[in-house]
Automatic annotation (TrEMBL):
Classification via SUPFAM superfamilies: PLC-like phosphodiesterases
GO biological process, one term: lipid metabolic process
Name assigned to this protein: PLC-like phosphodiesterase
Biological source species: Massariosphaeria phaeospora
Pfam families xrefs: PI-PLC_X
């Protein structure tokens, strides 16, 4: 009897250990659980919902080869997107995720995207996720907030003690997880509202370097937004640092699109203009790594390697492995579609110029 219990107990022991260690991994590593939110480096997918894949006919406006759910599965923990106002087919105004213009790339509604993230968070309960919305058409807090409420994701939202005073100390990942407030939401920019106190104004809490880079020699660690900050005042302000690290190519009529041909260098760990090189350079400037690094085509590099190095994480767990390569279109009409989308914009521009719109 005793022996049988012992055998049964020893049979489930490895299982217990496995679940125990899986439970204590926060954002894919137990070593991050007790770190304050602002003492971690997070990999960010720049323009997370704007895809260069089959769903968009490999649009040259796409910034990522894999969708938001796949990004999260692979370890991305900051998702950025641009929000624009659009009249939908019923003639009502709706908030869509569009790349600069909804004629260029319309990735659907804000609400649908938030639901996708909510679904992922429902099944991944030891992860802290950050959303950064670029408020292209000056949405009011209620206009954005209603989609956070309706999608249900608001139930995970963290509310800061103050909407404009930086916290002395951010909570640890473990306390955000234990409290069920695992979603951090920043908007650039927003006048905070007491009705939606979880929508944080980005530049009250963060600063960024310049994001307009065309060549691997262009990157800088110097604060660009909010204005009027030097490296010294940015650091002493206590704001978190978001490091933009992606390249633009300029197409016909000055339309900018992500530079995909060079991304294996841009997202590499070493070399001129590489992500790892820039993280080290900025770590030198601020005496600590950036909190967020925002990249295009996150799976190439892979960008995650430099982020793990910054966090001192060498055995991450629970991530899905994604090919470290571009997703290439099959040669079946994709090229035609892609030119079609640029042509549509050119026509739209010409029409609006001609008619003075
Ligand atoms: C986190 O804190 C450790 C210990 O103080 C420090 O070495 C590291 O640079 C910090 N990382 C970030 C991203 O703040
Ligand atoms: C939507 O349509 C209404 C009515 O035609 C118009 O007044 C409004 O400016 C349009 N909004 C956008 C964002 O196009
Ligand atoms: C967790 O929730 C409690 C009760 O609402 C609150 O007092 C505490 O500040 C929260 N902690 C964090 C880290 O948000
Ligand atoms: C991407 O950037 C590299 C390095 O600056 C440049 O050589 C290349 O032409 C760019 N690609 C495109 C498509 O603009
Ligand atoms: C990037 O890709 C080009 C073309 O395939 C290759 O020649 C180069 O060695 C790659 N560089 C890195 C850092 O992977």
């Amino acid at each position: 009897m005793f022996l049988r219990n012992l055998i049964q107990a020893s049979a489930i022991l490895p299982f217990l250990y496995n679940t125990a260690s899986a439970q204590i991994a926060c954002n894919n590593s137990p070593s991050l659980c007790n770190k304050p939110y602002n003492n971690v480096t997070y990999l960010g997918a720049h323009d997370s919902p704007f895809l260069r894949d089959e769903s968009t006919g490999f649009s040259t406006s796409g910034n990522q080869y894999y969708d938001t759910t796949t990004q999260l599965d692979a370890g991305v923990r900051l998702l950025s997107a641009q929000v624009h106002k659009l009249n939908n087919t019923e003639g009502n105004e709706a908030w869509h995720l569009c790349h600069s213009s909804c004629n260029l790339l319309d990735a659907g509604t804000l609400g649908d995207w938030l639901s996708e993230i909510k679904t992922w968070m429902d099944t991944n309960q030891n992860d802290v996720v950050t959303i950064l919305l670029v408020n292209g058409d000056d949405a009011m807090p209620a206009e954005l907030g209603q989609h956070f409420q309706q999608s249900g994701i608001a139930e995970y939202a963290y509310t800061p003690p103050s909407t404009d005073i930086l916290p002395q100390q951010w909570p640890t990942l473990q306390s955000l997880i234990s409290n069920g407030t695992r979603l951090m939401t920043f908007v650039a920019s927003l006048q905070p509202s007491p009705d939606f106190p979880y929508l944080m104004d980005e530049f009250s809490f963060m600063f960024e370097n310049d994001f307009e880079n065309d060549a691997p020699t262009d990157y800088s660690c110097t604060p660009d937004r909010p204005g009027d900050l030097t490296s010294e005042t940015a650091a002493s302000s206590g704001r978190m640092f978001l490091m933009n690290h992606f390249l633009y190519s300029t197409q016909l009529f000055g339309i900018q699109s992500p530079n995909d041909t060079y991304v294996n260098v841009t997202n590499a760990q070493t070399g001129l203009g590489a992500l790892g090189t820039q993280i080290q350079e900025c770590t030198g400037v601020y005496s600590k790594p950036p909190n967020f690094v925002l990249v295009d085509f996150f799976n190439v590099g892979p960008a995650m390697s430099s982020v793990d190095a910054a966090n001192g994480v060498d055995t991450p767990s629970g991530r899905r492995s994604i090919p470290n390569a571009a997703k290439l279109e099959e040669f079946t009409g994709g090229v035609v579609k892609r030119q079609g989308s640029i042509l549509a914009v050119v026509i739209a521009v010409v029409v609006s110029v001609c008619f003075g719109l």
